[in-house]
Fold:
Amino acid sequence: MGESKKLLSVDDALRFSRKEVLETYKNYVHPGRATLQALLNLDTNFVRAEGCKVWDEDGNEYLDFVGGYGSLNLGHNHPAVIEALHKVESAPVMLQTALAKFAAVLAHNLAQITPGDLQNCWFCSSGTEAVEGALKLARMYTGKKDFIYCLGGFHGKTMGSLSVTGKKKYQEPFEPLIPGCIPIPYGDAEALEKALKKHDAAAFIVEPILGEGGIILPPEGYLKEARRLCSSGNTLLIFDEIQTGFGRTGTLFACEHEGIVPDVMILAKSLGGGIVAIGGYITTAAIMKKAYGSSIDKATMLSSTFGGNTHSAAGAIAAVEVVVRENLARQAAEKGAYFLNKLQGLKEKYSIIKDVRGRGLLVGLELAEGGGLLDFLSAGSVKKLSSEFLSSMIGGELQQKYRVLTLFTLNNPNVIRLEPPLTVSYEQLDYAVDAFDKLFSRHKSFLKIALESGKSALSSFFR
Ligand code: PLP
Structure:
């Protein structure tokens, strides 16, 4: 290998400066993403993380209110998960000639903590892959083809999950997607009833609270009605609890708020304790048996090379144990109520905040469209960009000036998501509220920064 082909090492990566990260990412991963993040001031080089805190290369401390989009319910680098990984470090990580022992134990534990008679699991390595698995399970079980899904819902970006993700921007460039996927408005039980009458669907897939759609809670009773409608039509009810699971919304799983048990529950993100990559679904023994049988001819239809491997399953076993032992759900309920109340106070103060909503520590702060800041930014071509990236600009400001990390929700960029680890302290919640307060009170100079940032981002996009 010649001089120009020199490989970089882990140590090289550890030593990288902010500039080197940016250049290498730009050249070898995604130039547009690198440019955008740099323009929005979202290219800080973080080198250490623990609990709710992360540190940059200069030793500055930040509070993480993005929380890995719901993957960091336990916080960064929870010692119990790391300890579990140490315990298995000399075991085979995967061995296809044996049964995956740790996956079996993890499935046993999930069956104990999920509601109703959910019992049998299948494991993979990500959320989107788990969604694919759940959709296939529904087809196998019902013998039917169609899927009903919600506009604004987000289930991932592989072909199947994208087909049931209700955002045209993400779907259209990849069409044709899988046929027979019918979108309906979220939270509208009548629309679901009509769709079920018209299409003999294999499943209705839905998030108990829309995460990427902008932290939207359905009307009370909606999930119960969905349960009733699906049960009467032999349509599987699939709850995607990838973002809402493991205590995030104040109950262990968000469906418990209405006392509903789905036929299939999809899990990922915090299942891995913020450290290991694992996803999967849990369903009833009856559904698993009818779909994939107990006979050997279907035994190889479910597989995923890394799914439920020793590291991911052991990490997940430890993560689940922490969630239960530390009663993170109750912590989320109590801290979330406190946080929401404080944010409501800000809403009274600043017209730029259109809405504050959420449950537990799944919180969204929606920015006003057409009022104040957006009006100012909406002149001509800046309008589109500002509505897409305003919350990121605010995120960039919060990060640089107040050292609080936030991001927007993918399907609704006007909403700032606030999903800190459930172990966040009351002082840290106060600090974040105070940071928003200071930022919005500096409205005028911030407008200037946002406009400048919008303009330069725009010009680089059209270059
Ligand atoms: N489903 C929901 C509700 C999600 O929030 C996400 C990711 O944000 C996914 C599915 C996709 O998960 P992944 O990014 O692990 O593929």
The domain at 79-325 is CATH 3.40.640.10 (Aspartate Aminotransferase; domain 2). Residues 69, 126-128, 131, 154-156, 207, 211-212, 240, 242-243, 268 surround pyridoxal-5'-phosphate (CB under 6 Å).
